[in-house]
Amino acid sequence: MSFISTIQYYYFRQFAKLVHVNRFHATDCQQNIFSELIQNGSHTAFGKEHCFKNIKNYDDFKRHVPVRTYEAFKPYIQRIFNREKDVLWPGLPDYFGKTTGTTDASKYLPVTNAFLSCTQYAAKYMLCNLAMLKGHARFIGKKVFYLDDQQEFENINGFACGAISAIKSSRMPTWAKSFSFPGSCLNGLTEPAQRLNTIIDTIPVNDINMAVALPVWLSHFLNEFEKRKGRKFKAFFPQFSVLFLTGMNCEPYEQLIYEHMGGDLIILENYTATEGNFAYQPVPGVKGMELICNQGIFYEFIPLKEASSPQPARIQLKDVSLFQRYAIVISVCNGLWAYMMNDMVEFVSLNPYRLIICGRLNDIFSPFGEHMLPIQAEQAMAKTSTQANSIIRDFLIVPDFEASRYRCYIDFELAPTDIKTFQLLLDQNLCSKNSYYHDLSKASVINQPDIIPVSERFFHNIDVKHVTAQSKTKHLSQDQHIMRKAATLCGID
Question: What would you measure as the largest C-alpha separation in the chain, in angstroms?
Answer without folding.
Answer: 67
